[in-house]
Amino acid sequence: MAITVMNSPSQERGETVRVRRMGPSVVWVLLLAGFLLSAGCIGPLQQWGEETTFRPKATSFDPATLKHEQVAVLNAVVGFGLEGFAHQVSRSLSSALDQRPTLITALPVHEALNRINRGELGEEYAAMVADYVRTGILNRAGLQKIGQAIHTNYVFQPSLASFNQSMSGRFSFFGLRVLQTRVTMLRMSLQLWDTRTSEIVWESSGEATLAGEDVREFRIPFDEIARRLWTHMLDDLFKDLPAE
After folding, report:
1. Which domains does the chain have, with CATH numbers?
2. Which of 2, 36, 55, 175 has a CA positioned 20 to 30 A from the CA of residue 9?
3. How many helices (H) and strands (E) does the chain have?
4. Residue 203: CB partners within 8 Å, gap ≥ 6?
């Protein structure tokens, strides 16, 4: 079988035929575009690390009693420069508690503050919190009044010691940062107070680090990070209780 090879007009005239090939820079651009598309579809890569410590529960305290009554969440005490996170700290704690409806019923911070205000104890509550910041003690007389006003025998006092985020570029292309690492560090503590005896019946502290790499400006909400740490800290409080 004969095969006929057709020459192009340029070849018939003896002209040089030039074939364009993609240079290395074009190949790199295409590879980068494919990487960005695949990374965008996969989403951010995250690493989570935490360390929590606990104080033994008071011998007079039985966590099982929390199943039968509400426990109020008070407004968070925060470090200097972190005042804007106070509400989010308390709200994320309430969210973590809501995940265990068979073990505890939480009174959210906004309702606790409403009851305190309706009881005309706003100034006394503010003074009690100010003393707590200086001494680490919730005044006995003030705490008893607060407990009566909000109708709870136990209150959670959350605290935020530090929160910071940093970002660094891991990979750049022609001056454009396409892969970046965001590191979030969070330190919090939590105390459970008996409003009748003014005793700390349980407490915990925790530190979490979340590192994520992404090609986009991706920020994980503070509430989500805090709720995750609260959840692990609360594991100690409920570890001896059977799940229902």
Report:
1. 45-238 (3.40.50.10610)
2. 2
3. 7, 7
4. 54, 55, 189, 190, 191, 192
Long-range contacts of 27-30 (CB under 8 A, 24+ apart): 28/173
Gap between the Cα atoms of 113 and 134, Å rounded:
21
Phi-psi region of 120 (alpha: psi -120 to 50; beta: other; left: phi over 0): left
Scanning the structure block, which residue is given the tokens 């001896």? 240
Residues 6+ apart with CB under 8 A from 197: 60
Predicted pLDDT at 42:
43
For the segment 81-108, the average pLDDT, to the nearest whole number, is 91
Q: How confident is the model at residue 163 (pLDDT cuts 50, 70, 90)?
A: confident
Residues 6 or more apart whose CB falls under 8 angstroms from that of 25 comprise none
Between CA 244 and CA 242 the distance in angstroms is: 6
Give the pLDDT of residue 239.
85
**pTM score of the predicted model:** 0.74
pLDDT number for residue 21: 53
**What is the rounded CA–CA span in Å between residue 198 and residue 193?**
6
- Tokens 């107070």 belong to which residue? 193
